[in-house]
Amino acid sequence: MTIGRVPPVLITTVPFGDPDPAPRRVLDAGGVVYDLQPFGRRITEEELAALIAPYEVLIAGTEPITARVIAAASNLRLIARVGIGLDSVDLAAARRRGIAVTYTPEAPAPAVAELAFGLILNLCRHVTEADRAVRGGGWHRLLGRRLDGATVGILGVGRAGSRVARMVRGAFPGVRLLGCDLRPDEAVGTACGIEWVAPARLYAECGVISVHVPLTPVTRGMIGASQLQMMKPDALLVNTARGGIVDEAALAEALRAGRLGGAAIDVFEHEPYRGELAALPTCLLTCHMGSMTADCRIRMESEAAEEAVRWLRGEPLRQLVPEEEYLLRAEEVRA
């Protein structure tokens, strides 16, 4: 493989190397020629399918890398995903074509966890609601709640969820922590005093629930109308994981009916989001910005760029998507 052939790499994630050019310097230092996608936003399946054919390496964000896109990618040999979520990549189609897939699973976790923690505190104390009221000429002090002494549930105690658990436990020793995970990390559980429970019990007993599971066919719609009905009428729900895990229409209905105390949603089924949650004052919305801190973003982009350089040099890749992810997808298709 010869570095410098024009152009071996397409970069579709946005931003990339902005404002810090460190990730681009990784490619430049490796002698890699690359193109940036021309739209300056998350591109569509159709746009990516039209662009992909000449390229050997794709440095990707959350855009849909579907079977259709992969069928159009006649020269593609590596997908270097900037981030951890793999729901946007058809792994089975990539494997059939012999395309390697890497990701950066550790890099975004600290930023995602801090955003989740901040959203929890925001909901507890009505910070955004108060800000809007004051800007509109109001002056009504809103009665909130303290997190210490509450029961907090972490749905998915992995890279980000375990960090949220540590933050909550470190700042609020009186919190009761419930955790739900397919493979509980007993070391984290012991360190944070987590009580491991099934999802139904977590929904029923927690005043605050923070979602940190990946989006798969199994978790799609995991929190729908029936799960929301299990929750306390003053419960707070935070989702910084993936859109599609929480049924947005069911959440909007629960909030309108006063069957839920509030929600904070950073990720949506369709982005940019233009749905009914935007009209509800008890729902705090952010724009899929969990990983958007300078240090985490630079690390994610740089690690993906490093994988592109390694592949073009014929060196071993260091962050290949593990085999269990491919097996999980195969099991889901059979189901």
CATH topology of the largest domain: Rossmann fold
What name goes with the CATH superfamily of the largest domain? NAD(P)-binding Rossmann-like Domain
Q: List the uncertain runs.
A: none
Q: State the helix count.
A: 13
Order of helices and strands: EHEHEHEHEHHEHEHEHEHEHEEHH
Average per-residue pLDDT, rounded, comes to 95
Question: How far is the first residue's CA from the last residue's CA?
Answer: 40 Å
Radius of gyration: 21 Å
Q: Which class of the largest domain in CATH terms?
A: Alpha Beta
Instruction: Give me the count of strands.
Output: 12
General form: globular
Q: Which key features would you list for this structure?
A:
335 residues, alpha/beta, Rossmann fold, 2 domains, seven-stranded parallel beta sheet, five-stranded parallel beta sheet, 38% helix
Describe the structure.
- With 335 residues, the protein is α/β, with parallel strands linked by helices.
- The chain folds into 2 domains: 9-107 and 293-334, NAD(P)-binding Rossmann-like Domain (Rossmann fold), CATH 3.40.50.720; 109-285, NAD(P)-binding Rossmann-like Domain (Rossmann fold, 3-Layer(aba) Sandwich), CATH 3.40.50.
- Helices cover 38% and strands 13% of the residues.
- The protein has 13 helices and 12 strands.
- Strands 8-7-6-9-10-11-12 form a 7-stranded parallel beta sheet, sandwiched between helices.
- Helix 8 links the parallel strand 7 and strand 8.
- The longest helix has 20 residues, at 294-313.
- It is globular, with a radius of gyration of 21 Å.
- The two termini are 40 Å apart.
- The relative contact order is 0.15.
- The model has no long low-confidence stretch (mean pLDDT 95).
